[in-house]
Amino acid sequence: MAVSLVLIGLLALEAVASVTIRKTDRGPTGYEVDFRYVNPTAKRVLIGGGIQPFTDQFHTSGTSFRANGRYHPRDYQPGDFYVSNPSPQLPAEPAYIWPYEMNLTDAGKGEWTYTAPLPSGIYSFAYLVNCNYAPNCSIDTGQLVIDPDLPPFMNVPGDQVASSFQVPFNPAFQASPELNTNFDYALDAPKPWRGTVKTVNYTSPGSIHPAPDVHDFSIYLPAEYGAVAGKKYPLLYLSHGAGGNGADWENLGRMSHIMDNLIRLGHIAPTVVVTPSFYNLLPGSEKFIYGNKSQSIPVPPAYLVRENFVDYLFPHVESTFEVCSNASCRAFAGLSMGGVLTYEMYVNATAMFDYYGIFSPATNAPYVTREDVARRPELGKKGIMVAWGLYDFVFNQARDLLTAFDGAGVGYVNRVTPFGSHYWNTWQDELWWFGQLVLWKGVTGRETGRAKVPR
Ligand SMILES: *[C@@H]1O[C@H](CO)[C@@H](O)[C@H](O)[C@H]1NC(C)=O
Ligand SMILES: *[C@@H]1O[C@H](CO)[C@@H](O)[C@H](O)[C@H]1NC(C)=O
Ligand SMILES: *[C@@H]1O[C@H](CO)[C@@H](O)[C@H](O)[C@H]1NC(C)=O
Ligand SMILES: *[C@@H]1O[C@H](CO)[C@@H](O)[C@H](O)[C@H]1NC(C)=O
Ligand SMILES: *[C@@H]1O[C@H](CO)[C@@H](O)[C@H](O)[C@H]1NC(C)=O
Ligand SMILES: *[C@@H]1O[C@H](CO)[C@@H](O)[C@H](O)[C@H]1NC(C)=O
User: Fold this and answer.
1) In terms of C-beta density within 10 A (0-12 exposed, 13-18 middle, 19 or more buried), how is residue 160 classed?
2) Probe ligand 2: pick from 130, 136, 140, max atoms within 8 Å of CB?
3) Is the whole model's pTM more than 0.90, yes or no?
4) Which ligand is nearest to the CA of 141?
5) Which ligand is nearest to the CA of 133?
6) Signal peptide span per the entry (predicted)?
7) What's the CATH class of domain 191-437?
8) Residues 106-123: tens digit of each pLDDT
9) Using one digit for the tens of pLDDT, what is the confidence trace for 264-309?
10) CATH class (in words) of the domain with range 2-181
């Protein structure tokens, strides 16, 4: 997905929306973002869908969102970062400036605008129209409107409910002695390094979305793909979490840019990435449509997802794309409930993958034991990263998993994202470090990382 730095959206007069990222060379961040949305009948427009409040390392509670310092970006200072709030509720929290209220700047045209200084990072957003209580405003009620001129990366409409853009780092205003909050590794790589990303439908008997017996995934093909006759590429499966789907990693996390940059900087060989979806797979399951108040649909049990992927997804990918077919060049990773799925793959599809990225895992005991590893020594010969955010609500669960690995004598690399809650800036950081420290680096069964940390 090509996103212009200077202007996103259409320049044409008919454009009904746009997002412009401007380098200002003045504080607080050195960049400003202008939102513009035309809707002559709206009475009120808010920007929702993922722009989070900011906080800092000295005013962030690891246990309570309510206790966090929550700053408007106008009050940004170097070292601030955003933390997710799990349930933005308006107008219940008047002191808390989220979602952002747009100005009706031209009543005749129905033009709504909003300008905010934002620091480096990816932001997702949607317009909330005549909406006073964000959780109740959906696409179906017409109160959640995706920017028509910046459509999200997705397969079918309804699969994503927010567009996204990325603001660059400006060291003059954002460099902090305490914390590196430079997310430029998720910006567009120079053209020759840009891979492609697309959605794919495949036959999966019993699937209920996007069509009966059809399921889907997204795939990243590195720039080099197809240029070297007969070459097979290492393959990373990368899962979303609860309430998401296979388009999330690209739409909300800019997976393709992170991969382009990992490859460009020589951290990994060109790699194919498949981001599957774990909902809507199983016969008789309840349909999950993003943002359609269906977030409460239960996450399917990981072992059933694994069995289904083994039967339909993995064979489809291997027979359709130029990917390698042995464990040493296959990896599975995933965030949150996708981390649970990754752990399940580690235990139950051990022979398929040599590398596992267990990101912000919502895992629970029982975990592998020393006896398990004695019985199945391969469990101790994998390249594993376990990562989570310092302010992540799965902190205890992730730490318990590490404690179990310690007890079982299983080696791993551990990254605690120092600005991280349970959100995309954390998961981007986890993927970035997984690529730098673990992916395709060899499986000694011990920590592989430290010597490889770039200095
Ligand atoms: C909203 O409009 C007011 C008055 O023109 C202006 O001062 C303010 O900066 C605008 N706010 C945003 C966030 O654009
Ligand atoms: C939100 O929706 C629920 C259920 O549809 C309803 O009970 C509740 O009153 C709504 N809340 C607001 C603030 O509109
Ligand atoms: C969302 O659910 C409603 C009813 O529950 C349905 O009418 C609508 O078509 C669904 N939207 C999508 C995008 O599937
Ligand atoms: C996948 O199938 C759905 C439903 O038939 C269709 O709307 C969509 O365009 C298809 N996507 C691709 C990439 O073929
Ligand atoms: C695994 O596949 C890669 C790429 O196809 C190949 O280079 C390597 O030799 C294979 N390893 C084994 C053990 O088969
Ligand atoms: C492994 O698979 C079995 C069923 O085949 C399941 O009961 C078990 O929970 C799975 N293990 C993990 C760690 O998910």
Assistant:
1) buried
2) 136
3) yes
4) 3
5) 2
6) 1-18
7) alpha beta
8) 999 999 999 999 999 999
9) 999 999 999 999 999 999 988 889 988 666 557 899 999 999 999 9
10) mainly beta
